[in-house]
Amino acid sequence: MKKCMLLLFIALLACPSGTALSAAAPAVKISWNGTPITFTGATPVQEGKTWLVPIRPVSEELGADLLWAAKEKKLTLSTFARTAILVIGSKQMKVNEQTITLHAAPRQHQSAILVPLEALEAIGLVTAWNPAKTAVDLKPEFTVVKKYVFPIQVASIRYRGQYEEITKVFTLLDSKVKDVINGQGMSLYYEQNYELGHDTEICIPVSKAVEGESIEYKGQKIPIVTKTLEGAYFLSVVHQGTPDTLGDVWAQMDLYAKNTGVQLTSPSREVYVHEDLKDYRKQVTEIQLRFKDL
């Protein structure tokens, strides 16, 4: 009996909390917009009620830039809207000019840097857990603002075509006005029609009128028109991500308008804030849905 009690005492010393002998909790499953993220090497680990995840696979999906300063053990993560600084072992995180206190500190594990999920929320991600708390889906935050967009002079091409042809038409227009470009290009959508082609207008802001120019599109010569887009009120969402993720943004904005009683009108706009042809995840697009004046 004494021998048994001694063995039990030794076991308790090795496991003060009385829980360390139980099997470790399985790693939480993490996805990006519904697509599972593959982690090689280090995997998510639990610390108390917080999960820490390897930052590189997540940052790649987000299209963020990572800068690691080994000497200071400092990680800088940058998106189009935010710059975050984390230090290994510190619960203090800086996002732009704001300091945030995390529940758990970033750590290094198997040559990977792991950060708490709340740090990802601080840089603009939304975490959606399943009911069992065994899986979480990450999505860019969805923030709608109402704004007035001032009149602007543009060179434009209006045509009917499919969405996948926009890049080609935009490139043709860009080549004709490249010497007088004065802002970010955009697409205006007047009517959606998959059979006849969508009524679309490609616009590029210009510093002066473009005269006597045209483009060749599907065997037709389409003149370039210089015009002023009138000022108007818009619902606006700025989104970073690949073009295929924009459909979800449009759908959420339409739902937002219905739920808030906003009456939309045409044309809507897609403004190309930042283009990255090497990594489409870094592309930044502003969706503007026009609504009736306040």
In summary, what is this structure?
By secondary structure, the chain is α+β, with helices and mostly antiparallel strands.
Could you characterize the architecture of this molecule?
With 294 residues, this protein is of the alpha+beta class. It has 2 domains: 28-138, Copper amine oxidase-like, N-terminal domain (Copper Amine Oxidase, Chain A, domain 1, 2-Layer Sandwich); 146-291, Multidrug-efflux Transporter 1 Regulator Bmrr, Chain A. The protein contains 5 helices and 23 strands. The chain has helices at residues 2-14, 55-62, 117-122, 166-177, 246-260; strands at 29-32, 35-36, 45-47, 50-54, 65-69, 74-78, 83-87, 92-95, 98-101, 107-109, 112-116, 125-129, 135-140, 145-149, 152-161, 186-191, 198-205, 214-217, 220-223, 225-229, 232-240, 268-274, 284-291. Mean pLDDT is 87; it is low at 1-23.
